């Protein structure tokens, strides 16, 4: 683009993470930033493709080549404008997104991809630093009122968009702080909470009303919302965790990850936490090899765990991309290691946990598991077969279940509204994100099932278009249609 | 043929698109001595030009021929006596040749009408004579359509004072009768035609072959039939519909060439009619209307205009100068008087522009003129006994060498006139000087013509926009971020249009979901085959953007008032220039400004109303004395949207033409809408005289201010931008071969796609638009969307420009057929070898319901009786019809290029070299049995690496006439892509850029193409010859011409094909989809019964089996894949091919990147097999067992019903699916092969004679007579040598051949090493074309007495694309000597214009004068010119070369070669130079390309280059 041979001359470079020994002592983010001239060089690696596969690979459709070039040319203000045109919260995705864009980057075919995520993060951080992120209240108000339930990335994105379209937006959050998973799901070392707060503050200044401790369906009856608002957007997430109903599950010291992680976030925020679940001095086992699992891992190590094991039911994925299973530009199911893995863990795969056993006090002491072999059944679907004689046991005083989520919680709001659910138990919507109940919309994990922050933001934006159209007959909110 | 008349417009065929070109000649006795011999000689010339004509499906029916002579009074008197007709004295009567309908009743009606008008015009009918003919002597097809042929004799009436008045009356009578019959409603009125009606000349012509003329018209054999002059013509038309009237000569002219600007010329002439007044005609004037008879050819139209100018009082030569002016604008050496003449007349009328060699006569003078660029050949011989012979070729009449006084050629723009009354030749200079001094033209210009630049500056009044207002306006006009980045920034930065690569794969405007500008519904037309595009850079000297605007006067007067106009240097102007124009309030230069806006709320109806108000306001303004109308959209606001500027311009233009007011004013457009070259070209093409793109200018300034354009000041950026815009228009014009903007203005060189008839007929009258489409309502809806974006959407929601997505894929942008999904799926499928994945890919591509991207997306298969899949021919057979596209080694890497070749050879398909030559090592098989040899060898305009050896190693030779991504343009391979390897194969120098000229310099017309096909067939008689065309309106008739020119295959390429580099304007806006071009081709070939003898191929974004099936049903039997084959090899559509940075190692020569290439032959093989498999499934469904059976079966296709798309639903595909009604025995696919007529070639004798040398290298020497009909001598012989002995050929001088006479065209073409030829006589065009070795020596007959160095010895375009060998010519050459030379060493004694153009290697020594523009585009090799008069520098184009001081080794080289020249030819020039070497040597000038010298000077010289430089 600016520099057509940049990709040939400049190697990929990322800021270094703080040393493990140092970072385990605090809860701050691990990654620094590149000096601006270095980052501009990284922007110059972008090849300005005729078909920017990154732009398709990004769920939001971020116009990556444009802002890569703008950064290269030092036009930071234009860069944040272009970035904001598809993404309300680049400071979130720039920190926690697994960056499918980079997997789809054309350079990734035979080279290291452009450092898209780092550039994204630094564009928005630069913009905040320069004070460019000022409130932009809408030039006129429509008089329509919208309730948004849930303040995670989907709810916030929907709120931001609908407020800019001139509607009066109120956000209902059942926790005591705004941000949903951003606030209580993701540890501070990955996303410091001031980052969330500053964005919420901007939205508040633009006119969005936030209600905390407002559990719709409990503290705020659904009927009341129906009465007060012209439209409701459900963005409550997929918070029903998958449990492990095996012998010994009832023992003390076995917890769902989402009981464990928020407590630490509150603690970091300065709250008093009664009876906090702590890993300090314990042998910890984490069941589940996903992002939540690695968040538990980082948190446990920071709390001073004696040892941490992380077990995954599925087989170990390949280390690198292969043409057969994960050809470019698709998202490859390969072995991924987060920063937390650098901090100390024993990982194993194809492990089935059979039962837990405890001491007399009802405290968990051991996990009993067995190795699996994955085979294919007659229809070609994978089938797990226990490997005879491979059973084992391991000491543990804390077990964290991070095995994913099964969908939205049904009692309360969902049941009261009576919205139709899809086969997987998520809220079903039409093309305009409207549920079976007129005027009620759904988006984010509540509609889609557990997914990435980046998808949640996209869902919130798209749902906002549906709501706007529903209320006004047409919408001028920008779209980023999936191909 | 079911009809005896040419078919009416049907399907995609429109008779309007017929073209012709041909051979023309005349013979005249200078002293005016009449004899029958002249007639015989005229006919002899014709017979010797037979090969320049053509035959259609009926070998006995030619395209027409004729002869115009003086009135044979004695003969007529004799035959009239038998009919009891008494002729008055010569000059007192006129004779008409009349073609009449066959049917007696209709014929009688015509006769009566004729007689009635003769009476009404006060003349006396003497009687009719049936012209005796022998109908058995013409071909069967000609006979079917043969009219009744009679002569009418008319005596001067009492009120008609003299012969001149009689001549005018005869003209009036003819025009009236023509109109009357045309409007009579007679069924066969088209058979009525008057070839001539005059007291001075008579015209015998018809649908005949040359040798049939005297047999058919018995009159011509009568010894009493005498004349002092004979003008003859042999026609080659692009189709075969029998047409007696279209034979030449016309009343005054016989034309070889083509008028490119016809549509505009006709419109302008029509518009002028209301101002016509001539005392010579008085009230008779209106009887002549329409001046240009409808339905005529370009030549007929030219003749109509010329005769008007002559009859209204101008001498014939003066009239010709007005219509075909020289390239005066940039001609510094031209006399001031002559320049003034041309400049003055440019205010009166635009030129009729195009390649032309025109012979003309009024019976008293006979002459010829050549177009400004010398694109047709015209050779003449003057004898000592007063005979002048002029013809397209030399040697058409046998003239004893000792009788020859002079041999010459007509030069570009020059005229040659024989005045029989004065009994002498009047040379161009004398003739024109006399005409130019008839009036005080310079004085008139000084008095009246105002140069815009000379007007005093006016304070700026235009508003300056703030950021918000600018954005609003940009949004209202649909600006995108891409417009700014890709189009405008490069223009503003470099003063040049932006370049892109790969093709276009976005939907047609009418199929797009995005609001489109009206400009996007138009496609540029371009020249192919029937006329050449021009190179606007290297041949800039013939180009001009200078034009005048204002009010014209009566065409037949000449006064100072006639040039009271405003003269502009360029059509795209800045704000200051516009301010000047707006302030003009003088007499005859008075400006009125009219807003072009409509109330956006009122939609299409409001738009329509606003247009009629606009037109009305224009009329009123003119009535009130305005001569300059400025249409402006500055005043747009929330309520009022701009009328699309093109719509407003065209609406006013055509309204004023209709009302007769058009020539009373100039149109100036002040609009925020136009910003790219296509926009400007369209506005000019539909009548705008000047354009001020105020918002584009403002935007450019802002880009500089914002720092987005660095290292340039705002004023300079604007200047660059305007320069790029103006240069861009020039480029668009030159694609069509048009040289001056004055002729381009209003010429409507565009085809509309997706506009309905009502809209086109109403506002774009005369523009082709063949599939209907949208009207004003949809245009208004599109405007409304943009307007809403600008004015109603809050900036906080959408504060940015639309991303566009035309040039790069964007999620919010335009749809692309190649997108992340389709590319990923295709690559996965071919790598995994999974047909299942391939089906997923093709479903994505074929998913028409969602994305209507192509016309074929609107078609579906008719349900048919299916057959089991196993009954369909196997995929392994089908893939033999598959080809990969022409991609040169150089544009793509060696790895990618060879990969395609291996893959195609594995499956029996064909790969294509592209135009970059081929490494001979690829002719040998690899150890594993793979072959890297490309079956198709391309021959393109650059002729890189085209040697005899290259050609014999082909199965098919493809002549690339045009390329889908940039039809009508040449190419350029930048120096950084030319490494040692590429340079070796291309016969060039590493690191030095290469230029492919826009035209093939040996194809300026259809008969030239026929000649090249003949040449290539000679070069390899086992290869099929294919001609690649690009789809545009009229491509069907061109294809018919190609079939008649004996091509074996014709390829119709879609507009969307890929490219390594092309200006974005061309990539997006030139050419049309193959569906239209292919369907038209099929229809016209079938209608002409030519389809059976040629194979049809198509390409352009073919991606799936469904695409192939539709192509086959529309008429293709072979299929090409280029972009898709590259995608299968790993291409991911970076669109940076032109930057050499392809990250997957395909379109790059960078060794680091080439290593990244991961494509394998299996990938391409898989792709081809999958395609064939998918095609088989469709064949089974449709019930076809073979592909042959499905070719042309349009009945199996239908339009999809219920197309809901808001724009596409107005489309009508009936014409694409039209099936012409023909007899059952007319083939609809290829069933036979062409007869190339090689059996009678001279080379058969040569080969027989040289057998010992070919077989055993035994030396052979022989002598042969040669004539102009012996074309392409020595080429088949050379092919035999190359086949046997490879590139090295035979040892020097193994074969010695001596010829005597005038050699036909392409003498020594593609000659192989080992042959040494002498030619005692002379040679025609294309002498030594592509010579790859050996030696040719040409000298005049020993008995000749003329001075050889002052006379012509070889024709135009000699040594084109030569790669080796030596040539010595004692005499002068014509235009473009050694063009694109890359290896021959030549000595010549004088050359015409454009010598050594585009030369890349080799050496040329000119021992005499050169024409202008020497060394244009010369990037390599060296030339030495003997510049005794020290005026060479003025003739040399210095943009790429410098005149270097001579060094010692230069002198050594020169002396040696001149010495050999003397030895071979006995040249007296050589002798003089050598004998006075001390004095003469210093006159030599060394012409050295700058880049070439730099490369030679660098330390790491490759030894080959070093050797060459020191030769």
Overview of the molecule:
- The complex is a heterodimer of chains A (483) and B (1511).
- Chain A has 483 residues and is of the alpha/beta class.
- Chain A is built from 18 helices and 16 strands.
- In chain A, strands 3-2-1-4-16 form a 5-stranded parallel β-sheet, sandwiched between helices. In chain A, strands 6-14-7-8-9 form a 5-stranded parallel β-sheet. In chain A, strands 10, 11, 12 and 13 form a 4-stranded antiparallel β-sheet that branches.
- Chain A is globular.
- Chain B is of the alpha/beta class and 1511 residues long.
- Chain B is built from 46 helices and 54 strands.
- In chain B, the strands form 13 sheets. A 10-stranded mixed β-sheet of chain B has the order 43-44-45-46-48-50-51-52-54-53.
- Chain B starts with 19 loop residues before the first strand and ends with a helix.
- At the A-B interface, helix 4 of A face helix 24 of B.
SS-derived structural category of chain B: alpha/beta
Treating each run of at least 4 consecutive H or I residues as one helix, how many helices of chain B? 46
Could you tell me the strand content of chain A as a percent range?
A: 15-25%
Q: Identify the biggest protein-protein contact and residues per side.
A: A-B, 50 and 45 residues
How would a textbook summarize the main sheet of chain B? 10 strands, mixed
Secondary structure tally: strands of chain B = 54
Largest sheet of chain A: 5 strands, parallel
Overall pLDDT of chain B: 94
Q: List the uncertain runs of chain B.
A: none
């Amino acid at each position: 683009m600016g520099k057509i041979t940049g990709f040939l001359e400049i190697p990929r470079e990322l800021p270094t993470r703080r040393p493990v020994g140092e970072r385990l002592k605090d809860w701050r983010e691990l990654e620094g930033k590149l000096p601006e001239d270095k980052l501009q060089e990284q922007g110059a690696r972008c090849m300005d493709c005729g078909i920017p596969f990154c732009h398709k690979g990004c769920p939001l459709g971020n116009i990556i080549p444009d802002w890569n070039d703008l950064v290269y040319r030092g036009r930071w203000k234009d860069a944040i404008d272009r970035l904001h045109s598809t993404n309300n919260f680049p400071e979130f995705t720039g920190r926690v997104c697994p960056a499918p864009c980079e997997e789809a980057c054309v350079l990734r075919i035979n080279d290291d991809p452009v450092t898209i995520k780092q550039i994204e993060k630094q564009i928005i951080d630069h913009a905040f630093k320069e004070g460019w992120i000022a409130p932009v209240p809408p030039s006129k108000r429509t008089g329509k009122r919208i309730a948004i339930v849930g303040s995670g990335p989907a709810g916030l994105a929907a709120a931001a968009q609908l407020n800019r379209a001139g509607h009066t937006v109120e956000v209902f959050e059942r926790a005591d702080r705004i941000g949903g998973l951003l606030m209580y799901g993701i540890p501070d070392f990955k996303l410091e909470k001031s980052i969330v707060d500053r964005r919420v503050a901007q939205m508040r200044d633009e006119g969005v009303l936030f209600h905390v401790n407002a559990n719709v369906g409990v503290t705020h009856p659904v009927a009341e919302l129906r009465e007060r608002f012209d439209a409701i957007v459900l963005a409550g997430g997929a918070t029903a965790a998958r449990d492990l109903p095996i012998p010994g599950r009832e023992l003390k010291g076995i917890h769902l990850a989402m009981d464990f992680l928020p407590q630490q976030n509150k603690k970091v925020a300065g709250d008093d936490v009664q009876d906090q679940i702590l890993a300090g001095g314990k042998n910890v086992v984490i069941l589940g090899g996903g992002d939540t699992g690695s968040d538990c891992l980082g948190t446990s190590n920071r709390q001073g765990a004696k040892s941490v094991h992380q077990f995954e039911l599925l087989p170990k994925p390949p280390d690198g991309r292969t043409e057969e299973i994960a050809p470019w530009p698709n998202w490859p199911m390969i072995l991924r290691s987060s920063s937390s893995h650098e901090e100390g863990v024993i990982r194993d795969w194809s492990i089935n946990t059979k039962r837990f056993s405890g001491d007399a006090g009802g405290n968990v002491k051991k996990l009993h598991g067995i190795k699996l072999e994955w085979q294919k059944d007659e229809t070609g679907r994978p089938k797990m077969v226990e490997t005879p004689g491979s059973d084992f046991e391991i000491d543990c005083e804390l077990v964290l279940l991070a095995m994913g989520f099964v969908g939205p919680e049904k009692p309360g709001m969902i049941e009261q509204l009576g919205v139709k659910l899809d086969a997987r138990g998520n809220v079903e919507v039409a093309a305009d994100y409207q549920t079976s109940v007129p005027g009620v919309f759904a988006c984010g994990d509540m509609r889609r099932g557990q997914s990435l922050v980046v998808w949640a933001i996209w869902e919130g934006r798209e749902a906002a278009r549906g709501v706007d159209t529903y209320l006004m007959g047409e919408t001028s909110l920008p779209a980023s249609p999936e191909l | 043929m079911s009809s005896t008349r040419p078919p009416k417009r049907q399907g995609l065929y429109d008779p309007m698109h017929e073209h012709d070109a041909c051979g023309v000649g005349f013979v005249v006795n200078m002293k005016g001595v009449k004899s029958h011999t002249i007639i015989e000689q005229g006919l002899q010339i014709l017979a010797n030009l037979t090969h320049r004509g053509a035959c259609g499906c009926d070998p006995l029916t030619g395209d027409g021929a004729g002869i115009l002579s003086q009135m044979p009074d004695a003969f007529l008197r004799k035959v009239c006596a038998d009919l009891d007709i008494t002729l008055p004295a010569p000059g007192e009567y006129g004779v008409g040749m009349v073609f009449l309908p066959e049917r007696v009743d209709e014929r009688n009606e015509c006769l009566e009408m004729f007689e009635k008008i003769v009476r009404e015009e006060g003349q006396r009918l003497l009687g009719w004579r049936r012209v005796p003919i022998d109908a058995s002597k013409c071909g069967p097809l000609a006979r079917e359509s043969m009219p009744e042929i009679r002569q009418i004799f008319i005596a001067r009436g009492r009120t008609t004072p003299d012969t001149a008045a009689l001549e005018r009356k005869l003209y009036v009578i003819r025009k009236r009768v023509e109109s009357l019959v045309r409007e009579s409603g007679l069924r066969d009125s088209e058979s009525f035609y008057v070839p001539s009606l005059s007291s001075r000349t008579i015209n015998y012509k018809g649908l005949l072959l040359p040798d049939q003329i005297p047999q058919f018209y018995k009159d011509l054999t009568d010894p009493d039939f005498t004349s002092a002059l004979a003008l003859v013509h042999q026609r080659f038309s692009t189709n075969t519909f029998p047409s007696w009237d279209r034979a030449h000569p016309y009343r005054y002219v016989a034309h070889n060439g083509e008028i490119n600007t016809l549509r505009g010329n006709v419109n302008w002439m029509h518009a002028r009619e209301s101002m016509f007044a001539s005392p010579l005609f008085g009230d008779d004037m209106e009887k002549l209307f329409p001046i240009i008879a409808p339905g005529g050819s370009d030549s007929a139209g030219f003749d109509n205009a010329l005769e008007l100018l002559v009859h209204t009082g101008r001498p014939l030569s003066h009239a010709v100068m007005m219509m075909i002016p020289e390239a005066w604008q940039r001609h510094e050496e031209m006399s001031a008087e002559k320049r003034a003449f041309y400049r003055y007349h440019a205010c009166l009328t635009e030129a009729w522009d195009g390649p032309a060699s025109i012979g003309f006569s009024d019976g008293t003078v006979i002459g010829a003129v050549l177009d400004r660029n010398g694109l047709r050949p015209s050779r003449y011989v003057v004898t000592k006994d007063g005979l002048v012979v002029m013809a397209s070729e030399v040697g058409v009449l046998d003239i004893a060498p000792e009788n020859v006084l002079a041999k010459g050629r007509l030069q570009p723009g020059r005229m040659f006139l024989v005045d029989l009354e004065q009994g002498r030749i009047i040379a161009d200079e004398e003739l024109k000087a006399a005409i130019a001094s008839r009036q005080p033209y310079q004085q008139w210009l000084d008095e009246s013509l105002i140069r815009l630049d000379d007007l005093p500056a006016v304070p700026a009044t235009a508003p300056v926009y703030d950021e918000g207002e600018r954005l609003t306006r940009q949004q209202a006009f649909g600006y995108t971020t891409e417009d700014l980045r890709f189009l405008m920034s490069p223009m503003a930065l470099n003063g040049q249009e932006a370049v892109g690569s790969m093709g276009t794969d976005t939907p047609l405007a009418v199929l797009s979901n995005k609001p489109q500008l009206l400009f996007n519904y138009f496609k540029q037309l371009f020249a192919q085959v029937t006329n050449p595009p021009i190179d606007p850079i290297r041949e800039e000297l013939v180009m001009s953007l200078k034009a005048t605007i204002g009010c014209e006067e009566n065409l037949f007067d000449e006064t100072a008032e006639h040039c009271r106009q405003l003269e502009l240097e360029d059509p795209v102007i800045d704000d200051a220039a516009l301010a000047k124009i707006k302030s003009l309030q003088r007499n005859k230069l008075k400006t009125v400004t009219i807003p072009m806006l409509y109330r956006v709320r009122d939609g299409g109806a409001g738009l329509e109303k606003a247009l009629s108000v606009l037109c009305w306001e224009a009329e009123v303004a003119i009535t009130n004395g305005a001569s300059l109308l400025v249409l402006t959209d500055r005043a747009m606001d929330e309520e009022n949207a701009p009328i699309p500027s093109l719509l407003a311009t065209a609406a006013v233009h055509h309204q004023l033409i209709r009302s007769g007011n058009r020539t009373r004013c100039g149109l100036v457009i002040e609009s925020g809408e136009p910003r790219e070259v296509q926009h400007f070209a369209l506005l000019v093409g539909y009548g705008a005289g000047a354009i001020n793109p105020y918002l584009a200018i403002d935007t450019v300034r802002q880009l500089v201010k914002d720092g987005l354009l660095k290292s340039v000041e705002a004023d300079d950026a604007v200047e660059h931008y305007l320069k790029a815009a103006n240069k861009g228009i020039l480029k668009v014009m030159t694609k069509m071969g048009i040289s001056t903007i004055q002729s381009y203005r209003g010429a409507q060189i565009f085809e509309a796609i997706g506009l309905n008839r009502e809209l086109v007929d109403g506002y774009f009258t005369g523009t082709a638009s063949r599939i209907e489409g949208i009207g004003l309502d949809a245009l208004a809806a599109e405007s409304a969307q943009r307007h809403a974006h600008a004015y109603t959407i809050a900036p906080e929601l959408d504060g940015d420009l639309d991303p566009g997505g035309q040039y790069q894929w964007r999620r919010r942008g335009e749809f692309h057929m190649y997108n992340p999904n389709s590319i990923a799926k295709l690559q996965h499928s071919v790598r995994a070898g999974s047909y299942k994945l391939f089906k997923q890919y093709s479903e994505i591509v074929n998913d028409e319901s969602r994305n209507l991207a192509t016309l074929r997306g609107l078609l579906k298969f008719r349900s048919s009786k299916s057959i089991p899949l196993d009954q369909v021919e196997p995929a392994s057979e089908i893939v033999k019809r598959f080809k990969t596209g022409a991609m040169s080694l150089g544009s793509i890497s060696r790895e990618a290029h060879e990969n395609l070749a291996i893959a195609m050879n594995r499956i029996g398909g064909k790969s294509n070299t592209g135009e970059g030559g081929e490494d001979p090592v690829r002719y040998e098989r690899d150890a594993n049995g793979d072959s890297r040899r490309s079956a198709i060898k391309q021959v393109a305009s650059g002729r890189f690496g085209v040697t005899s050896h290259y050609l014999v190693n082909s199965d098919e030779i493809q002549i690339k006439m045009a390329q889908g991504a940039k039809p009508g343009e040449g190419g350029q391979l930048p120096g950084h892509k030319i490494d040692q390897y590429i340079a070796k194969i291309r016969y060039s120098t590493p690191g030095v850029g290469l230029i492919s000229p826009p035209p093939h310099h040996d194809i300026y017309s259809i008969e030239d193409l026929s000649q090249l096909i003949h040449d290539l067939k000679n070069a390899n008689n086992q290869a099929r010859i294919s001609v690649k065309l690009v789809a545009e309106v009229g491509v069907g008739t061109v294809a018919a011409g190609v079939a008649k020119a004996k091509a074996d295959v014709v390829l119709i390429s879609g507009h969307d094909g890929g490219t390594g580099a092309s200006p974005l304007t061309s990539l997006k806006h030139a050419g049309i989809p193959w569906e239209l071009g292919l369907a038209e081709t099929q229809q016209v070939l079938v209608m002409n019964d030519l389809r059976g003898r040629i194979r049809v191929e198509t390409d352009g974004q073919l991606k799936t089996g469904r695409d192939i099936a539709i192509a086959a049903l529309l008429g293709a039997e072979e299929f090409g894949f280029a972009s898709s084959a590259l995608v299968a090899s790993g291409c991911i559509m970076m669109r940076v091919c032109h930057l050499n940075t392809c990250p997957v190692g395909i379109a790059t020569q960078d060794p680091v990147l080439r290593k990244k290439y991961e494509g394998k032959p299996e990938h391409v093989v898989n792709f081809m097999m999958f395609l064939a498999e998918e095609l088989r499934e469709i064949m089974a469904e449709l019930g076809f067992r073979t592909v042959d059976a499905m070719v042309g079966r349009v009945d199996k296709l239908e339009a999809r019903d219920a197309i809901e798309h808001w724009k596409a639903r107005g489309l009508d595909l009936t014409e694409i699916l039209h099936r012409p009604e023909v007899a059952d025995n007319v083939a609809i696919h290829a069933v036979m092969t062409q007869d190339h007529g090689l059996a009678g070639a001279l080379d058969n004798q040569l080969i027989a004679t040289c057998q010992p040398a070919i077989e055993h290298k035994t030396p052979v020497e022989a002598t042969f007579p040669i004539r102009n009909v012996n074309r392409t001598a020595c080429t088949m012989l050379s092919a035999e040598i190359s086949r046997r002995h490879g590139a090295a050929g035979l040892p020097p001088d193994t074969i010695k051949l001596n010829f005597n006479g005038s050699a036909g065209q392409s003498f020594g073409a593609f000659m192989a090493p080992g042959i040494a030829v002498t030619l005692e006589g002379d040679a025609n065009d294309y002498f030594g074309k592509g010579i790859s070795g050996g030696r040719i020596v040409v000298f005049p007959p020993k008995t000749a007495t003329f001075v050889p160095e002052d006379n012509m010895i070889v024709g135009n375009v000699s040594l084109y694309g030569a790669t080796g060998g030596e040539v010595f010519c004692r005499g002068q050459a014509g235009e473009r000597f050694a063009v694109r030379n890359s290896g021959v060493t030549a000595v010549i004694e004088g050359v015409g214009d454009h010598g050594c153009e585009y030369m890349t290697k080799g050496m040329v020594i000119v021992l005499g004068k050169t024409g202008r523009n020497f060394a244009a585009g010369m990037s390599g090799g060296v030339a030495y010119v003997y510049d005794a008069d020290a005026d060479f520098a003025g003739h040399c184009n210095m943009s790429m070369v410098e005149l270097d001081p001579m060094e010692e080794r230069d002198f050594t080289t020169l002396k040696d070669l001149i010495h050999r020249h003397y030895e071979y030819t006995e040249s007296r020039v050589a002798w003089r130079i050598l004998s006075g070497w001390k004095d003469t040597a210093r006159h030599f000038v060394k012409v050295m390309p700058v880049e070439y010298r730099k490369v030679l000077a660098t330390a790491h010289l490759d030894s080959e280059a070093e050797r060459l430089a020191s030769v």
